[in-house]
Fold these 3 entries.
Entry 1:
Amino acid sequence: MSTTPISNDEIFQEHRGGKLRIESKLPLTSKRDLSIAYTPGVAQVSRAIAAEPELAKEYTWAQRLVVVVSDGTAVLGLGDIGASASLPVMEGKAALFREFGGLDSIPLVLNTTNVDEIIETLIRLRPSFGAVNLEDISAPRCFELEQRLIEALDCPVMHDDQHGTAVVVLAALINALRVTDRAIGDTRVVVSGAGAAGIAVTEILLAVGVADVILVDSRGTIHRDRTDLTPTKAHYAAVTNSETVVGDVVDALEGADVFVGVSSAKLPDGALERMNPNAIVFALSNPDPEVMPEVAAEHAAVVATGRSDYPNQINNVLAFPGIFRGALDSGARRITQDMKLAAAHAIADLVGDDLAADYVVPSPLDPRVAEAVAAAVGEAAKAPTA
């Protein structure tokens, strides 16, 4: 597959002045229009909200507004580039919320990497939004930040780099297992990368009953005997790698069924040969996968990447617009594990009878996706834990 090359001039021209704007839903062409949208008419609405704060959900956009929050410390493919340089990425994310989820969204990039300061900022801004999409925040800070914000705010909060990735990986895996005639409870998965995405992928795979997961970081396999682990990694060391495989990613791949790459580490030549026949390879580092699809296809029955110029693109846009839409539509205060699992199954189900080795997830541009995910998430939100 190939795409038409895009010139730098075209890219910069399209970004000039930013990618977002705010437009009024009301006409503003007469004095009557102004009197309704602004003074004096707006005072009636403000008085009503002051007397009954819950009315803000009905008469402002806050209940349907997602803020995309980042400190620019872990921007995909770019790393720690700071708040200002991350803003074009967050503008793009906000545009995707509108296009695919029908939700208003604004980017908030913060000139601080202090978790306490980020939390305090969002607590103070809480009347202005209805949900928080955390984006491109480095690990391990992102784990603490997300958990504390979930506890501090009475609205949906999700770090998309973690859970959006995990949901789409699970959706793709459900169908890849169908292609290769495997049962999830008999499957051994190697996850290369123990940052935000790797930890979340591991968590969701364990939740659905994958037989064993081996996490690999820059120092090798994560296992119970390692003494250099962060608290987060130590937690997963206790519930993964049941055979205590020691070594690097090549050692971990011996007898594995699935490889999920969510780091920039390249797979050594011959590593995939250690996997079981009809292996599944998700090499998701972008733009340069851990192993190129052409090479992976020599050893694997199903190959997916994070790139748009190959089949089976694992793209978070399949998940996050519908997840937030479903959460807001249902009035959920939390995005639960059950809601994420429902989203993954909804995405997988859209493939239907068209399932094939080169089609295990729908296209990110498939107009059915966000609606299906939102509906599934809304149903899951009705559970008492939501």
Entry 2:
Amino acid sequence: MVRQYLSYLPASRLRWLKQRIKSYVQFRKAVNSFQEEHFSDICSQKCFTSRTSACCGREGIITFFADVVINVLLSTEKQISTLLEILERDTGGFNCVYLNENGCLWLWKPIVCEMFLCDAAKNSVLADSESLASQWAEFRRRERMYTWPTRPVLFDELEGFFLNGGFDSPLMYLHKSPGLLRLKARHGSEVRQPGVVRREAGKS
């Protein structure tokens, strides 16, 4: 649905969307570099190779609608087709459907996956380094600037953009999750698209 809708948008609107996610992509690159430098070895051994961790277990994966939008915006047609083919061939199992022998198939893995560190990883890397622990805390703070709707945030805006286009998805948690809706109401957080009155989920 996301791929289809974006394919119909004019180039100027696509450029606008890519500009809106630019700072988020920079944030993700910084997190990825930090993870690669400090956690790659232990996570590969603990989670991927030995399979003793549930980090990439199917039941632990939460995907936001914005995760899908950002990946479709930035991925090649081949990368998107690969994700769809994997879904069509899915037969269940313990692991996340997007995990193969080379790791995650997403260009930018869901933010919940990227920001999750098991206790073993945190104890091995962060417990004895105040500097690294501080850097990770700052990344967690920055994450909320895109995902936590106590103010207008990118993930809410991207959901609103598609709602305004007449689309709906159970992954639109910032418009559907009772907890997040209460949080938005408590803080008076609202996102409006330029020149468009936003249609909230469940309202006409």
Entry 3:
Amino acid sequence: MVESHPLCRCLVKACASNRVLLLIFAMPLMLALGCQSEGQAPALPPPTVTVANPLAKAVTDWDEYTGRLEAVQAVEVRARVSGYLQSVNFKDGAIVNKGALLFVIDPRPYQAVLNQAKAEVTRNRVRLDLARNNLERAERLFKSRAISAEELDTRTQEQRQALAALEAAKAAVEAAELNVEFTRVTSPIKGRVSRELVTEGNLVSGGSEGSTLLTTIVSLDPIYVYFTADERAYLRYARLARSGSRPSSRDVANPVKLQLADEKETEHEGHMDFVDNRVDRATGTVQGRAIFPNPDRLLIPGLFAKVRLLGEGPYQALLIPDEAIGTDQSQKFVFVIDEKNVAARQTIVPGRTEGRLRIVREGLKGDERIVVDGLQRVTAGSPVTPQEAQIKDEPAKAESVASSSSAKDS
């Protein structure tokens, strides 16, 4: 046995012949004096860990939904008059301007009706002139009492009838002109036309509910995206609008971002255009709509896309690395180092990621020193050797967003 204190050596010599006396009286005194046995290991120093203050930064939350693109204008081009299709005047899938000629239906029958209607106008105009002359003569004769009042009334009614017949004939001409015009089917909007659904020489019917569908046209610039949000998201937006943190999309064109299936970042920016007036009973969701410019016509109706709607912010948030967060069953925690360099466990509520960091929604004030490296070497209540560092704000490779079911809503 090797002793570090002189008194320890004396006690050992005095009790060498009596081990019981050594255990009862001498051993506690030797331990109090710091006497060590030859095989006892020295105490380990506190573990070295990296500590830093949470990063304070203004952030903006974007809520993610799945949307489907739809055309602002979509038209089914149908025949408005019946007849044989004479020609198709567009290329399948081409961009057509408003007013561009698409189809021609044989106009000859309708042109003949128009000519007949014009002739009827001429005939009724002659009748009206004759009726006016007769009325003028009857008025002169009535003043000289050459005809009766009954005869004057007859001439007056004949003039009115001739005038009405002329007006009816003019209306018939207008109707016939419309039918002739309808034989030339033009595009009502600017957009991309589909294929021809009826080829030349076929009989098409028009002017009824069962009119022949000739083709379809959809506008491309701008374009809508429709998406749905659940009841929790709707209520959160409504309460944010009441508190003044975020205006309602019904009143303000809140920004919206769009990402296609093959895109790693949002490349399209638009704004909210419409929010439905009720919750769908079948799905428990509210429909929203955003509008996007589409000058390059990349976006087409029917595509699915990720929609990112302004959720909240900008607001001041605290951010820490994910490596600083521990898990204990359902709880998340960090180790906070006090002024005596002793670790204490602090429960937190993490939120979404911002770049490479995690937002802390609850649990930290911002002035704490938390362990950001060496978490596995720390236990609550134990001392540590801290090395000061700073949390760097590094963007992620792909833009980070919050979903409608983010941690702050759970």
